[in-house]
Fold each of these.
Amino acid sequence: MRILCIIVANFAVLLTLNATELPQQDEKVHLGVASCAASMCHGSVIPRDGSDVLQNEYIIWSRADAHSQAFQTLLSPESAEIANKLGLENAASAGVCLDCHSDNVKTEQQGEKFQLSDGVGCESCHGGAEEYIRSHTHAAISRDENISNGLFPTDKPKARAKLCLSCHLGNKNKQATHDIMGAGHPRLAFELDTFGILQPLHYVVDEDYLKQKWSGDNYVTWVYGQLEASRATLTLLEEKLIDNSSIFPELSLFDCHSCHHNMSDLKWNENKGQGFKPGTVRLNDGNFKMLMIIAASTVDSDKLHQHLADIRKALNDKSKLKITITGILEDIDFIETSLVQQNLVQKKVSATSTLNNILQEGAKGAFSDYIAAEQVVMAIDLLFEFIDEKATFAADISLLFDIVADDEKFDDALFSKQLKKINDRWVKQ
Ligand code: HEC
Ligand code: HEC
Ligand code: HEC
Ligand code: HEC
């Protein structure tokens, strides 16, 4: 009986592991982009009629998608400079760079046509094709079956968020650390819905798609992006701040702009202070600010508010930090559960109330940190879109994008003023 329990328990663990395993850790052989690119498969120059998928995915990816250039980037003078400063021999062969700029799976998982120089290729997102390469073209074989054969569920917003964020924010296996940034790597900024649209689409959500797959709306995609980014940040905080014995914690977890600006440029104010005196290093908490807004329009947000205030205060008390992180993770689970239960009408109501919250808080100056402002602009854009009001505010939104276009020229007073203007117009409507 006991043995059986252990077997069953292990099996359950395996199942859950399999369900969340990212392509880079999937233990399947990755066959290489060339295996997907034949003209009868995904390499057709024009979209094909009569097929469930466009079949020109390879052409879109290779001609228009930045991911196909991710490895080439490692051969650039900028990368050589970064590698040089970090004491790496060559960016294009350094694991820390390849982990995000290619499909860096173990050598024994690299199939015959596999090349690291393909960059972020099909299997970096869709999973090692070893077992689904044959099954995934059979109409009789269900999507679930393909997924159990290793196809990653890119349509599911939670899985997709984890996938994109693994490279665009970092996870326990890989991170663009402050050392890497200090050597010249660009700061990473990400929002799931916006970046999902910026990546040239190689799929269309048509009738056939809807039959088999979850079709994300902007609101749910955005919320999952925020929930997963917050979860990833909490995991990194736990790992780099609690399980860390060096004098300085990993600085990329803090707000870059709280350290990097001219001393004569006095930026501190009540909102930025998060309840602290001037001179405190602030967390990189743009996603937490969005989480707070989401909570305020979906569940009772008092607990989360308290936990977020606690985490900022707990930064030099490791045991308190751990408890607070656990608390926020529970709050996130709670938000997720209530989101899953919402129907479209309820989602529109939540999205509208979220937008109201952002605009009201923003007009009062709550997003005066650049990292929060950047998230706010993307959120406003997609929320107006989701509630079908974007056309009326298009020019105002475009101005918001201009204000956050360059982090070093960001003017927080101008930003709050523009949010106030939009809020005033929105309230009048
Ligand atoms: C294996 C790592 C990895 C994964 C997974 C990944 N990306 Fe990327 N992404 C990159 C890298 C690296 C670049 C930069 C490529 C370059 O220019 O060299 C990039 C660039 C981009 C860009 C272009 C950004 C710009 O400034 O032009 C978009 C948009 C993007 N990714 C969206 C996504 C989305 C959406 C997902 C999830 C569906 C995703 N990425 C998953 C690594 C990844
Ligand atoms: C945690 C993942 C991650 C790691 C580790 C990482 N990068 Fe990146 N890198 C990215 C992403 C994502 C982008 C695209 C950022 C964007 O445009 O939003 C990027 C962008 C870049 C760019 C700018 C590309 C452009 O088109 O402007 C360079 C150069 C670069 N990386 C080099 C490196 C080098 C060299 C290393 C190793 C020392 C490295 N990266 C490690 C994720 C990573
Ligand atoms: C950065 C991540 C990423 C990369 C790289 C990528 N895809 Fe995708 N792909 C997605 C996402 C996200 C979707 C949409 C969700 C879904 O349909 O599962 C998608 C959808 C698809 C679909 C489904 C189309 C449909 O109508 O059902 C196919 C087929 C596909 N990709 C093939 C490819 C091929 C072939 C490559 C390489 C040439 C590739 N993808 C590269 C993320 C990626
Ligand atoms: C706690 C304060 C702190 C935070 C937060 C911080 N940095 Fe730094 N950063 C430093 C210090 C200290 C240096 C070293 C400065 C020097 O060498 O003159 C540095 C150096 C750098 C450099 C190299 C500058 C040079 O002169 O060569 C870059 C680029 C950089 N940081 C980017 C970032 C980014 C991007 C973030 C946010 C993800 C960030 N930093 C967050 C303190 C910080």
Amino acid sequence: MNPLPPLAFCLSPLDRAEDIRRDAQALAALEKHNGAHALLFLNGDPALDGRALLRRPFSETATMARINAPVLLGLEDGNPLYAVELDPEAALPGGVEITDTRSAAMQLAIGETGILAQARSLIEWRRRHRFCANCGTPTLELEAGRKRACPSCATEHFPRVDPVVIMLVVKDDWCLLGRQQPWPPRMWSALAGFMEPGETIAAACAREIWEEAGIRTDPDSTRVVADQPWPFASSLMIGLIIEAVSVGITIDRHELEEARWFSRDEVRSMLAGTHPDFDLPPKIAIARRLLEVWAA
Ligand SMILES: [Zn+2]
């Protein structure tokens, strides 16, 4: 059997230019580099060019209606690549069309999705962290968008990554799936939740499954199957399979609308898109990957 293809958002060809970021002169020179290009974003969503992100010469973006400073994403074959935010109040530049990030992830080549994850997460982090969390003063942007600092109390702020456990609970030939009220009608997926401070991955899994479905699991059976950056806004999805030691379900109605056990055959028909009643999340979702691994 062929190995499963990489998940969306998981591969990026960029060199993140760590050695240049602390050198203000080198950063200024990069902006004048002949090969410098920029990706264009509006409200965190990208402009596309077919299966690629739209790249415009960086010098061209100086005449566009931009907000905030450009973010240096890294070097692409030695050429600097930036993310530029367009002003939502202004008309789009000619030839530019914006696609929402989820749709973009489904149509872009895999390496482009990794660049998109990095760019969108940095843009969102900047939007949500304009003030110092320690003293409330507006922060300054440093290192071409990779860091912020407070001019009042000198606290440094770095982009957040929020770990989320997403787990397929299994018992013999059955797995547990749930659905949330806002989801599309037929869709079911694996249970998931944010990790809490002071928790191991295994402890977070066991807690989430107990809270949401009232099922006890064997922490020693926890197996990480895949992980995935998820730029809504900046999560890291940690995909696991874990064995249940009880099967009776008690749903937390604040979290789930329904939860039930599905047989492996049912999951196979859902993956094939032939189940008469139920669907699974799209191919870009790590939940689907967990089910592909288990069903195989
Ligand atoms: Zn401060």
